[in-house]
Amino acid sequence: MGFGVPLGFLWLLGWGVVLLLHFLQRRFRREEVSALFLWERIPEHPLSFRERLRTLWDLLLFLQLLAMGLLGVAFAEPLMKRESPSGAVALLLDGSATMGAKGRPEEAKRIAVEIVRNSTGPWVVVLWAEPPCYLVSPTRDRATALRGISRYAPTHGRRSPLPEALAYLAGEWERVVIITDSPPADTQGFEVIALPPVEDLALTAFALRPPPQGPGYEAYVAVRNGTSMSRSVAVTVRVGEYAFRERLQVPPGEERGLSFPYFGPIYLGFVARIETNDAYPANDVRYFSFGPSRILRARWVGEDDRFLRAALQATGSVSFTDQPPWDLTVAVRTELREVTGPTLLWESSAPGVGLGELVHEGDWKAEDELLADLLDLSQWDPVGTYSVEPPRGARILLRRGSVPAVFVAEVPGGRLAVAALSFGGAEGVLLSPDFPLLVHHLLSSLLPPIPRGTYEVGEAIELPQEAVLLEGREELRGSFIPEAPGLYRVRIGKEGTFTLAVNLPREELIPTSETIRSQISQREATGEAEFPLWRFWAWTLLGVLLVEGALALRRW
Amino acid sequence: MSSRTGYSLEFTDFRPYQPGDDFRLVDWTAYARFRRLLVRVYKREVEAPVYLLLDTSASMGKGRPEKLDFAARLAAALGFLAHRGQDRFGLTTFSARVEEKLPPRRGKTQLVSLFRVLSSVVARGETDLNGALSRWASQGWEPGICFLISDFLCEGGWHEGISALLYGRHHVVMVQVLSPQDLDPGLQGELELVDVELGKRRRLVASEGVLRAYREALESWNEALSSYALERGIPYFLFSSETSPVEATWVLSGR
Questions:
Q1: Which pLDDT tens digit goes with each residue over A477-500?
Q2: Are A212 and A312 in contact (CB under 8 A)?
């Protein structure tokens, strides 16, 4: 035990004042008796030392001296010194969506409070979300730290990379404690407290797309069973007043998909939900919307090509038609007489773009940066290219040797994307991801950007011009970052509306990390913590003063 | 009831014949046996009034419970018993002088009057047992039973007063009432003792030795009182004011 302000003991000089007042005001206590003559018969009685002491004893005086003593000790700020696990502690509370699983926020807070109570400080508490933020900026006040922890609540989004969160811990910290359900890869030097896994069923995918053949759309859902037993899961897809319900059997630890046809309206938002009562309800629902985009109507000219057709359908919402109007012309191994609107020339020629002889020599080179990143051109040797003279102003995307193989150009009839390629004998490339990536890139270059309809929490959404997001009574324009999953209504012009769907980030779909580590490295850095005791002294003093007051009242 | 020898149906004893005795009282059977003239003596039943003499001096107002409170309840209980025995009973309260008198009568009205007076008694004035009792006795009251209820803490003594009652052929019963604080003051520290009646003061430091000496002085005082009573065949009782009046009445009536 120690004292914060030893000078506070100067208050003990008050004892002298109390004693002085006591002896100055000392008087014989008046007592009425029935027969004084009996007392007068008592001879003078010399007091023994013990009797003299007892005479001096006065409970009120004792209480006054005790009160003054307690006051002196309280002002000296008594401190209890005892060994404490550590001093300065930085706490990183995972604020990603999966921390919202049942019981996890409470458990995280409980652990954090315990750490703060058992350490001497200072403390800093950071919510590890995207972006990270302080729950408690560096403080030495334990009450402030505990108040900050009580404000902890996980977000609906992902968490930032660990270094970003660590950047908030400026200064020297004896312990850096990370409380998470999914420990990051590199936690050398930190204490990681991993929360236990939870049993969970997750809706991992939900999308609608036109089918490869036939009318309408195809809805696709996937369910992952994170429990220890096989589950039969009821999946419901709702759009407006329509509801479609299917049942899916999913073995433990596996994911199963389900697709079914849909012929209803598409301008509304879609909601898929699995009926379960698990620990992480956030991933039991997913949303989908086509957004402001519409289905691209494409005219097919020339030979059929199942690879190209599948790639077009996979990369965009493309439907093929012979009736105008159309948004796109796809010419395959043919000679197009006239260019009208955006056109994809696939092994085809058109006015101003004539194909020459087939070439199989030279190194492939992507002149477009994105294509250079996406394609693995080392596998492209079997692919041939036709010699062709690009129109003036054409943008070369891919070249073999000196021959331009893929380019985009403006011609009098419209915009052209030319793929002067021959995949005959290059089935390996056709079946690789390079092929649809190339087709998607050509489509993107050919058509104006098409806004998506489905996003993730934390992702910036650029609203089209004149579009207004209706959120309660507020109207938002320009861009916004959704903070919670759901369907958002957007108004364009006076009457047009569409829906945006926002889902949990993909990495927040599964609340149980497979890499949860059992070992929790906790450094037992010890130090001396000081616990103030003046409150105890003050309460005792109050009690003594109350007793003293009662006694004094009784005497007077 | 007062019991004296006389004429009644209840035989008490024999005594030698004396000239002038009624021949009708000579027991001839005894004469035949003992050849002596013996006269049968009968118990004479005389109706004697009950006098409740209550000390209301200031010292009776001390104590927890108050001595006067206990004494008044005791007097009320004795008065009630007399009423039940169809005796006459009266009350006199006194300090240095006679304060209030209720001449002996019988009946409910008298009982009500007794209760009314007892409920309004106030402890005040000095104690002068000798003076007050002598003056009361000199008023020529019919001989009766005098229940003298007091703390008997009177520096002037009590001998003359009680003697005056005896001279008046009263049957005296001495009832001393002391408070627990009188018996064991339990005082401590530096005290200024004030006599509640005379206002005299004395400063002393109360210690175990002083308290012991006080208890001895009180014991000696009470011893003198009881010896005096014993010598004169006067029943003497000492009650603490903590005692239940009912219990005290039971003790007194048992005599």
A1: 888 888 899 988 888 766 677 888
A2: no
Quote the percentage of chain B above a pLDDT of 90.
59
Q: Assign A538 a pLDDT band (cuts: 50, 70, 90).
A: confident
Chain centroid, CA A421 distance in Å: 45
Query: Which chain B residue's Cα is nearest to A56?
Result: B189
Instruction: Tell me: do A236 and A303 sit in the same domain.
Output: no
Measured between CB atoms, which of A38, A47, A55 is closest to B218?
A: A38
Apex A311 CA angle, A305 and A317, nearest 5: 115
Domain that includes residue A487, residue range: 454-496
Q: What is the 3-state secondary structure (H, E, C) of A114-171?
A: HHHHCECCCEEEEEECCCCEEEEEEECCHHHHHHHHHCCCCCCCCCCCHHHHHCCCCC
pLDDT of amino acid B115: 95
Is pLDDT above 80 for A221?
yes
- State mean pLDDT over A213-240: 85
Q: A227 and A135 in one domain? A: no
Sign of CA dihedral A170, A174, A180, A185: positive
- How many C-beta atoms surround the C-beta of residue A80 within 10 A? 12
The conformation of residue A227, written as its DSSP 8-state character, comes to: S
Q: Which of A26, A32, A58 sits opposite B196 (nearest CB)?
A: A32
Q: In this structure, are A304 and A439 located in the same domain? A: yes
Total of domains in chain A:
5
Residues A340 and A424 occupy one common structural domain:
yes
Over residues A191-207, mean pLDDT: 87
Comparing A22-26, A179-183, A354-358, the range with the smallest average pLDDT is: A22-26
Asked if A441 and A308 sit in the same domain, the reply is yes
Count other C-beta atoms under 10 Å from residue B127's C-beta: 28
User: Are both A355 and A438 inside the same structural domain?
Assistant: yes
Confidence of residue B8 (pLDDT cuts 50, 70, 90): low
Which one of A34, A53, A57 would you mutate to disrupt binding with B, by most B Cβ within 10 Å of its Cβ?
Answer: A34
ipTM above 0.95, yes or no: no
In the CATH scheme, what is the code of domain B50-254?
3.40.50.410
Measured between CA atoms, the residue of chain A closest to residue B207 is: A51
pLDDT for B1 beyond 50: no
Contact predicate A100/A280, CB 8 Å: yes
Mutation site, A23, A28, A29, A39, interface B, largest B CB count within 10 A? A39
Contacts of A33 in chain B (CB under 8 A): 62, 185, 193-196
A183: Cα within 13 Å, side-chain hemisphere:
22
Find the length of chain B. Answer: 255
For residue B214, which residues of chain A lie inside 8 Å, CB to CB? 38-39, 42
Bond before A325 cis per omega within 30 degrees: yes
Nearest Cα residue to A367 out of A399, A344, A394, A389: A399
Domain boundaries, chain B: 2-46, 50-254
**What is the rounded CA–CA span in Å between residue A468 and residue A464?**
9
Q: Looking at residue A332, which CATH number applies to its domain?
A: 3.40.50.880
Average pLDDT of the residues of chain B: 89
Q: Does residue A212 form part of some domain? A: yes
CATH code: domain of residue A244: 2.60.40.10
> Which of A146, A162, A168 has its CA nearest to residue A90?
A168
